[in-house]
Amino acid sequence: MEIAMMSLRWVVVLALCFYGYKKKDLTTWILVSMAIGAEIGYDFPTFAKELKILSDIFLKLIKTIIAPLLIGTLVVGIAGHSDMKQVGRMGVKALVYFEVVTTIALVVGLIAINFTKAGEGIDLSAAQKTGEKLAEVAHQDWKQIVLHIFPENIAKAIANGEVLQIVVFSILFAIGLTMVAPHHRKVMIGFLETLSEVMFKFTNIIMYFAPFAVGGAIAYTIGTMGLDIFKNLIMLLLTLYGALLVFVFLVLLPIALAVKVPLKQFLQAIAEPVSLAFATASSEAALPKAMKAMQSIGVPQKIVAFVMPTGYSFNLDGTTLYLSLASIFVAQAAGIDLPLETQIVMCLTLMLTSKGVAGVARASLVILSGTVASFNLPAEPIMVILGIDALMDMGRTSVNVIGNCLATVVVAKWEGEFGKVEEEIDMIEMQEEMEH
């Protein structure tokens, strides 16, 4: 009977492999590899424990991306899009709105994971049998925490993976860059934009190894900890989607009602870009559609052109909510009780480090890895999360797009320019006629 059941399970796994071959899609293969890894871990636990090297390789590669990606995206986001002399009042309003809403998203995620405690009960003690020790979070007073924010050597901060120090350096560097001559600034921004693009492509290349990493991680996890881990994964998934729904209906909807957004028109306009974001798990894939949709309901092009790209760097509602939730999940899984003040500092770190990573599918894994390392939390639970990250990414990316579309309408309303697209088109046509 046992052999028959095992044979049946492997027939199902082979059928899933055939389905993955036909689909030729990375997300599908990640889900298929999760099933393969679970089966290997259940049937061949001794062999499964050796597959941890696959997830270790993946984590090492992910860590190489953190510093250049953060420096590139943050400096370009601030120096390239947030020059207060150029964007003026509209820029200030947009940036304040972004920070307030993303902070609320972080708090919602923090409350949700502390309420459900989805990470508690995971037995990571098996990791200690392999000679690895779970790091402890050292107690720090407020002076040590403040001092730790500022880098004394940027190369040292990069080498040690000190994400917050890299962020502070990037912000100061960006502010300094806005003060130099335009031709010098243009050269540096061009270089950093190229660096960001290269790192995004680097991330894409590494993600092709993700199915192997997921399969290895799940096999190792099941081989050492059994099938009970899936209870925690399902709870984490439900916690995320529940928190995202709470955020949409209790934060974004009241904002829309407060500024009198035409809801029916707005929902019809965002249906296609949000569906595209959900299917591809990439906010960038939905950007052209989202910009066109916002113009179609009455947001002037000049506001769409500023708010939407800036929002992709500073207004990642779904991603920031996920990061606060996932980082506390890691601590819970490791059996580390983080005090409230440490959780708040972690959220402030995430509020800064989550900027600028919406364009690449599963890029938030980079930020999560860096933040977790900065707070001396173990990496093992991240590989557990990676098993269902594709499903989580769909939800958080969709909320990113909804949040940015709403922000565009809100800024247009505040500026008193919502519905003036027709006037703008007439002006452009008049200018073109004069030029001819």
Question: Describe it for me?
Answer:
This protein has a single domain (2-435), classed as Proton glutamate symport protein, CATH 1.10.3860. Helix 4 packs across helix 18. The chain is 80% helix and 0% strand. It has helices at residues 2-23, 26-43, 45-49, 52-80, 84-116, 126-129, 142-149, 154-159, 163-178, 182-207, 210-225, 229-258, 263-280, 283-296, 301-314, 317-333, 340-353, 364-374, 380-386, 389-414, 421-435. It starts with a helix and ends with a helix. It is an all-alpha fold and 436 residues long.
Mean pLDDT: 78
Strand-residue fraction?
under 5%
Largest sheet: none
Helical coverage, percent range: over 70%
Q: Measure the end-to-end span.
A: 83 Å
Low-confidence stretches: 126-139
Structure classification: mainly alpha
CATH level-two architecture: Orthogonal Bundle
How many discrete structural domains? 1
Oligomeric category = single chain
Number of strands: 0
CATH fold name, please? Answer: Proton glutamate symport protein
Number of helices: 21
- Morphology: globular
CATH class: Mainly Alpha
Secondary-structure element pattern, one letter each? HHHHHHHHHHHHHHHHHHHHH
Global Rg:
23 Å
Keywords: Cell membrane, Membrane, Symport, Transmembrane, Transmembrane helix, Transport
Protein name: Proton glutamate symport protein
Main location: membrane
Membrane topology: Multi-pass membrane protein
